[in-house]
Amino acid sequence: MTTATRTQPLVTRIGGRIGAEIGGVRLGGELQPEAVAEIRAALLAHKVVFFRDQDHLDEAGHEAFAQLLGTPVAHPTVPSADGRYALGIDSHHGARANQWHTDVTFVPAYPAFSILRAVTIPPYGGNTLWANTAAAYAHLPEPLRALADGLRAVHTNEYDYAALKPDALPEALAQYREVFTSTKFRTEHPVVRVHPETGERSLLLGNFVQRIEGLTGQDSRALVDLFQSHIERPENTVRWQWRAGDVAIWDNRATQHYGVDDSDDHERTLRRVTVDGDVPVGPDGVPSRLISPETVPDPSFGIPSGASTA
Ligand SMILES: O=C(O)CCC(=O)C(=O)O
Ligand SMILES: [Fe+2]
Questions:
Q1: Ranges of Low complexity compositional bias (predicted)?
Q2: Which member of 17, 40, 103, 201 is catalytic?
Q3: 145 has catalytic annotation
Q4: Does residue 216 contact residue 150 with C-beta atoms inside 8 Å?
């Protein structure tokens, strides 16, 4: 008896706690549902998955593939590189992401998945690191898990994730900041998020955090640093050395990432498409809450129309 042949995704783990490479797949809108299901399962298990040799992908193919994982969403404030969903990460336009962060946590329903495609890669450096925030929570000593379970934090985009290089002209910096914070968002999230698909608990922090609710600035900073240092432990991380044509997909609900800024003035260009997520809930079932703005942007990012901004 013969069976229909199809390409079988081959999943090879990279780190002990995070990261896997998937071979035998040509990404795009035509991918078979079985392959999509296997990619999704690997993504939930390993938090970030990598694909080599996807040079055939253009903006349209990238977005068509994203649609197989959910609904693509544009960045809430930064205009898209292609006028639709794709965000340009372009070293020559000053985009740097050399801060540990989870994408877009300044809105309630921040993206579930981010899909990053390497277009131009420098001759050295420019790696990206990811950290597994569920593993970070699971490996906390019990008293710290109990402490984190009861905390909530305010996230805001008034602090910029893709900070310009320190040597950037002040005018360029001011202009970028103006775009990034054209709408100023403040959202309260639980510090521990219960994952809507896996049920795992993870630490929800990163560089959009302004402060922990109910604490002074000093206590808040000390606690954020304490939990963030557990997230960044090398055991919880994986590091990817890009080649042009690579694609990385991460579960943005269970990771943070960091783009290493060490390739001098060499060109480095990537494109990111994000897929919409849902409103986080903490261990007590209490959902995240929009604090501001008062007007509902489009798309709504989980901000209910007529939302109270109290
Ligand atoms: O430049 C990088 O390596 C990471 C960029 C980033 O943070 C993102 O695509 O969300
Ligand atoms: Fe990012």
A1: 276-287
A2: 103
A3: no
A4: no
Q: Mean of the pLDDT values across residues 31-56? A: 98
Domain 10-292 - what CATH class?
alpha beta
Which residue reads 């994952």 in tokens?
195
CA distances from 111 to 114, 121, 273, 278 (A): 7, 25, 10, 8
Considering only the C-alpha atoms of the chain, give the largest distance between any 2 of them, rounded to a whole number of Å.
70
Please report, rounded to a whole number, the percentage of residues in the chain having pLDDT higher than 70.
86
291 with 154: CB under 8 angstroms?
A: yes
Please say if 230 is a catalytic residue.
Answer: no
CB distance 101 to 256 below 8 Å: yes
What are the residue ranges spanned by the domains of the chain?
Answer: 10-292
CB 129 near ligand 1, within 6 Å: no
Measure Cα distances from 266 to 55, 120, 261 in Å. Answer: 20, 10, 11
CB 44 within 8 A of CB 268: no
Positive or negative: CA dihedral 161, 241, 253, 49: positive
The pTM (predicted TM-score) of the whole model is 0.91
Length of the chain: 310
